[in-house]
Amino acid sequence: MLCQRVFIGGVQDDHQAGPWAGRSVVDGRDDFVEGAGLHGLTDEGTSGTRVFVGNPASGTVSARLTLDGGTVRTAEVLTLPESPYRAFALPITEGETIASVDTFNGQGNRLPHAETYWD
After folding, report:
1. Most confident of 13-17, 71-75, 110-114
2. Distance between CA 71 and CA 52 in Å, rounded?
3. Chain-centre distance of CA 75, in angstroms?
4. Euclidean distance between CA atoms 22 and 15, whole angstroms
5. pLDDT at residue number 109
6. How many CA atoms lie within 13 A of 19 on its CB side?
7. Distance CA 79, CA 92 (A)
8. pLDDT at res. 1
9. Could you tell me if 58 and 67 are in contact, meaning their C-beta atoms sit under 8 angstroms apart?
10. Helix, strand, coil distribution of the chain in percent, nearest 5
11. For residue 65, what are the contacts with CB-CB under 8 A and spacing of at least 6?
12. How many DSSP H helices and E strands does the chain contain?
């Protein structure tokens, strides 16, 4: 099991889902699950303060979130020590809407949207 828990203002985003929330089944220490998700405290992460968390493929070094109004936020991809587990997190505040999420390799090239599921 790999546990990924997101907290916003000291409250776990899926606090009502019980002890198994935020966990993925992995096949050993070197397994890895790619994907992304929008986490929030209300309405399945569709309103209020939220966090966009991505688990990108190897070779991804940064992420860029663009909001409808043109504001851009960036995050570095970090790796959990002694594992292949990689992640980034980008905040979205009340009233903001995501226009796009892009990931980039070490040469600054934009990668396909497969990890973020964002077209």
Report:
1. 71-75
2. 15
3. 10
4. 10
5. 93
6. 1
7. 22
8. 47
9. no
10. 5, 45, 50
11. 52, 72, 73, 74, 75, 90, 92, 98, 100, 101
12. 0, 11
Task: Label residues 7-44 b or e (16+ Cβ within 10 Å = b).
Answer: ebeeeebbeeeeeeebeeeeeeeeebeeebbbbbbeee
H-only helix segments in 27-98: none
HSE-up of residue 70 (Cα within 13 Å, Cβ side): 0
Q: Spell out a b/e string for 92-109, using b for 16 or more CB atoms within 10 Å of the CB, else e.
A: beeebebeebbbbeeeee
d(CA 95, CA 33): 30
Query: Residue 40 has what pLDDT?
Result: 74
pLDDT tens figures, 17-63: 555 455 555 666 666 667 787 777 666 556 778 888 888 888 899 99
Task: Check pLDDT > 50 for residue 2.
Answer: yes
In this predicted structure, what is the pLDDT of residue 31?
Answer: 62
Dihedral pair phi/psi, residue 44, rounded to 5°: 55, 30
